[in-house]
Amino acid sequence: MEDATKVTELDSIDRRIVVELQEDGRITNVELARRAGISAPPCLRRVRRLEEIGVIRGYHGDTDPHLLGWSIMFFALIGLDSQRDAVLSGFEAMVAGWPEARECHMIRGGGDFLLRLVARDAMHENQITRRLTEAAHVSRVQTLQTIRTSRDLAGVPIDLR
C-alpha cells in the first residue's frame, strides 16, 4: 500500500511537474516552473522532493537504437523448470549482466519472464536466443521480433485533476 500513498501525496502542481518531466526531462527549472504555475525556487524544491520519495527515479536520453547499430528489437517469453526463489533470482541475475537485455519482467500466465532484448543483426539475435535456450533451468523460449513500434511512451498517465 505504500506506493498508493505516494500518489495521494501529489497535489495538482506536483502532477503537472511529473507530466512535464515525462515529456521533456531536459526542461529548464525556469520553464518547468512557468508551466506548473509557480516560481523557480519552490519548483526546484518540489522536483527534489519527488526524486527523494521515488516518484522521479532518474533521467535518461532517449536514443535511436538503429542509429547506434542495434537494428533488431525482440521479446522473449521464458519458461523455467522451477519457480523456486533461487531459480527465479538466478535467472534475473543472469540476464541483468547482459547488455542486450533492456527489460526483464517476471510475469503471471504463459511463462515466467518476459524480456525485451536488442541485437545488432540476425546472427546476434540467434546467439542471444541460444544463450537463453541453453541457460540453466530454462525449459521454454519463445521469441517475438518487433516489426515496427507505433507507440512508445515514457512514464505513466497522470491525472491532472
Summarize the structure in words.
The protein is α+β, with helices and mostly antiparallel strands. The protein contains six helices and four strands, in the order H-H-H-H-E-H-E-E-H-E. A four-stranded antiparallel β-sheet has the order 2-3-1-4. Strand 2 (101-106) and strand 3 (113-119) form a beta hairpin. The model has no long low-confidence stretch (mean pLDDT 94).
Topology:
Elements: H1 2-8, H2 12-23, H3 29-36, H4 40-52, E1 72-80, H5 85-96, E2 101-106, E3 113-119, H6 122-133, E4 138-145
Antiparallel strand pairs: 1-3, 1-4, 2-3
Helix pairs in contact: 2-3, 3-4
Keywords:
alpha+beta; 161 residues; Alpha-Beta Plaits; Arc Repressor Mutant, subunit A
Task: Give the structure's gist in a few sentences.
The protein is an alpha+beta fold and 161 residues long.
Rounded radius of gyration (Å): 20 Å
Q: What is the multimeric organization of the chains shown?
A: single chain
* Average pLDDT over all residues: 94
Contiguous runs where pLDDT drops below 50 for at least 5 residues: none
Strand content: 15-25%
The CATH class label of the largest domain is Alpha Beta
Number of helices: 6
Shape: elongated
CATH superfamily of the largest domain, please? Lrp/AsnC effector binding domain/regulation of amino acid metabolism (RAM) domain
CATH architecture of the largest domain: 2-Layer Sandwich
Q: Give the strand order, joined by hyphens, for the main sheet.
A: 2-3-1-4
Structural class of the helix and strand makeup?
alpha+beta
Order of helices and strands: HHHHEHEEHE
Total individual domains: 2
Largest sheet: 4 strands, antiparallel
